[in-house]
Structure prediction request, 1048 residues.
Amino acid sequence: MKAFTYERASTAEAAAQAAAKNPGAKFIAGGTNLLDLMKLEIETPQHLIDVNGTGLDKIEAIPEGGLRIGAMVRNTDLAANETVRRDYGLLSRALVAGASGQLRNKATTAGNLLQRTRCPYFYDPNQPCNKRQAGSGCSAIGGVTRQLGVIGTSEACIATHPSDMAVAMRALDAEVETVKSDGSTRSIPMADFHRLPGDTPHIETVLEDGEFITAVVLPKPVGGKQIYRKVRDRASYAFALVSVAAVIQPDGRGRVAVGGVAPKPWRMEAAEAELAKGARATSGILLEGARPTDDNRFKIDLVERTLGAVIAEARG
Amino acid sequence: MQFDTPATTNPIDRMKVVGKPIHRIDGQSKTTGRAKYAYEWHDADIAYAYGYPVGSAIAKGRITSMDTSAAKAAPGVLAVVTTLDVGDLKKGQFNTASLFGGSQIQHYHQAIAVVVAETFEQARSAASLIKVDYAEEQGVFDLEVAAEKAVKPDESQQPDSAAGDFDAAFRAAPVTLDARYATPDQSHAMMEPHASIAAWNGDEVTLWTSSQMIDWWRGDFAQTLGIDKEKVHLMSPFIGGGFGGKLFLRVDAVLAAFGAKACGCPVKVALPRPFIANNTTHRPATLQRIRIGAERDGKITAIGHESWSGNLPDGSLETAVMQTRLLYAGENRMTAMRLAALDLPEGNAMRAPGEAPGLMALEIAIDEMAEKLGIDPIEFRIINDTQVDPENPERPFSHRDLIGCLKLGAERFGWDARKAPAARREGNWMIGVGVAAAFRNNLVLPSGARVRLGSDGIVTVETDMTDIGTGSYTIIAQTAAEMMGVNIDKVAVQLGDSRFPVSAGSGGQFGANSSTSGVYAACIKLREAVARKLGFNSADVVFEDGNVRSGNRTVPLAEAAGADGLVGEDTMTWGDLTETHQQSTFGGHFVEVGVDVATGETRIRRMLAVCAAGRILNPITARSQMIGAMTMGAGGALSEELAVDTRRGFFVNHDLAGYEIAVHADIPHQEVIFMDETDPYSSPMKAKGVGELGLCGVAAAIANAIYNATGVRVRDYPITLDKLIGGLPDVA
Ligand SMILES: Cc1cc2nc3c(=O)[nH]c(=O)nc-3n(C[C@H](O)[C@H](O)[C@H](O)COP(=O)(O)OP(=O)(O)OC[C@H]3O[C@@H](n4cnc5c(N)ncnc54)[C@H](O)[C@@H]3O)c2cc1C
Ligand code: SF4
Prediction:
């Protein structure tokens, strides 16, 4: 870990301004990802802006319908919130499928969206990695890739985004609200929030330097059966090999986003039109053009099978 | 004392303290944080410095230069010691890979420097400033490739065995199996990382460390540093798990010593988690072939087991065929082990070395063979039970009750209810049950102890035995209490200090039986000293209720000790009973699993182990060993695998997020039953080891249960869902 200076910000605006004043600074929320990365010197901020005191820890109903989730709301609190459990069960289920109780107590809504990949080569500073060090090469390709992505990947990077929460947020059409260092605000649909790697895998979201997340907004509840099914090698404390977030309506229509397969939560509205036809048709379109490795080809089959189980469960 | 004739009645048979379910006597000090682990020793008057290791970024080659100038100039840095600075060092007797010194790189994350600073953070930060140039060489990292050129190692490793005519009998057998199995590299992944503090006083050094084997470490530490063994004082009273990973000297100790010398103050070094996979040792992967031929009535006529494993030059085999030499009858037999040259980190002992991966294969093969024969797998094992060493039939087992374990287990588990493969469904779960035999030899090593009787009546045991979480403190206290006729609260136990008599140490499930036997021997000496002091005839002296009695004279022990106290010291050594009699431990593992019909995820629903392992010294600590091992076996069956990058030559998943051991949610109700038995051939304690038995066979029982649930036979561990889903019913 490199030595760094540290300050606390008490408002979102102050946080964004502090970031503007300190190029290369990082916000620290729960620290459950950032600190690990700093210890390995994968992240080497010279300045940390602690945003835990910004007061953005509330979950509020929006008058015209929907829910505004403060950026600092802990994963545990969000999962346990009564409104979330009643109206957005998918989100609650995705959250409790992630990490461990201790981590969820610290992890925040914004931090979770911005957690970085779990590609093992990314975590080993001795190995070339385009995401860690732009242009150094990708050592995962041709190596151990069982956990890595099958679609949306590129020649430069085949890593996945590891969040469970983000997959549910994507299925629920959430929007990310931010404030930039100049004080301007914007709202970014989840669909656009994470970027595909292309030849710049080190750039993972559309956020600008120093842009600060203030909240995530959920639109009006969509009803339906909401199922989050996370598939993994052990029963807890493991990232998804594949996860399926689905909202299935009584008439068989619905939404599907998939985790564990791509650099972002993977959802294709065109695939959803096939839901009534079943899992095979839906996942066929969802994963069209997938480029798996020999190690992770099983994920294609696994998505289809898991989705099949989810649809069956929804039909009761 | 030499143990060379079977034990007769002795004071341990009273079983007033030994055999009782006594909670760990060190438990409270651990739960309250007073038990100090190696890194935690802290004397407020001493300024400790912190060392952080640097590991090689390549797997094979040579360091051509190192630039430490930036690291040396970094804030707080007191010293930097590199592998080039110290030059070639003598390797420890028990080490295969060189730990430190010289320019040669044998494996990834080999230690190449230590940075010592005032704080841990400063040392870690400065460590990344060292620039290293390498001349990299292409290594061999793929066992499948290397196995083609594998060789027969020297006879000291007992690579081959044979009896009868295997080839002819296998050809002639009406029912045969010829199958190949694979087990992956595994990491010890113990909770406490390797950690040491070294402090020099002139030419003498004190080392606080985390070691399973005090005397082995002491000797190899001295040899590596080029100093006299007598100059080393080593302390390791508490150890946060080892599983074999702390049997042999590790580099944290060496780096702490060099760092401390360089900066002139005590230095702490802990290995960062990623080092545990690639810097220390691991259980080597194996490729195995098993052939079994049998008559239609189930009698095995031919059994053959071959295994290939890899290691660095001078490394040893993973002895995966050993149990096959002893477990089942069959007149015609062969086993063979071959060693491939690999440039991966050193492979070495991990809990139940040999038997753990060997039984992972053999006990699937037995299940497969039983199915081919149409015989229940328990019945098939019973048909082929043997009461003698099948390769040397004149050698009987000292005591063998595998059949008892399997029968009792079948009854308790409800084995009768087992259905045909893929025939039981509960909702989305395909349910199956599996069984496997557990088998592990009972090893013994010489073990010494000193027992003091104080004027306060307190009995104090001193031995360099270690407690790696197993319960050594407690069973040693029970042994001394039984021998001296006192309550356990009148016994104090001090372990893990090289000033104490050399013990067996902890490993190979030899620790409990050997070390308590050493305490037994020392107590016999102390009893003689007490009797002598009181003028008693030692043959008819009784030690009971805190008193010593002879005829109608009774003296409180405290009084007998006198003002100066009394001491007994001895070492238990072993005659040839292990040669004349095959001594082993046995068990039956029973497992029920559910496999998700859509995703192929396996979740264990019940586990039962029934064990025959001689006298159980303490049912609480023995049960803990069993359920811990069964948990380890669950990880081994379902998720544990050090993933090898066969291009770059290292274990990629080198942290606890990537190397998936079983977590709480993976472990269901576990039941353990110990057969009520003693083995007078094993020791005066009539006990045997249980620390490894619980791991032996459990993974195969899980594999067999998965087969029973799904009809899919996987012979390549771990049994992850990608190996199953292709064979599961269509769900889409
Ligand atoms: C062992 C382990 C297992 C895990 N398993 C899972 C799992 O199964 N599923 C899963 O989904 N996750 C898992 N996680 C990841 C965990 O969910 C994330 O670490 C956590 O959500 C990150 O949140 P945080 O608040 O701690 O973020 P931090 O570590 O504080 O920050 C993460 C990033 O977000 C940035 N950031 C934080 N707040 C803001 C803001 N308001 N605006 C702009 N940028 C911001 C930081 O600068 C940093 O770059 C696991 C983590 C660990 C360590
Ligand atoms: S897949 Fe991406 S994260 Fe992994 S090594 Fe390649 S570039 Fe780095």
Q: What stands out?
A: The mean pLDDT of chain B is 97. The longest strand of chain B covers residues 429-441. The radius of gyration of chain B is 27 Å.
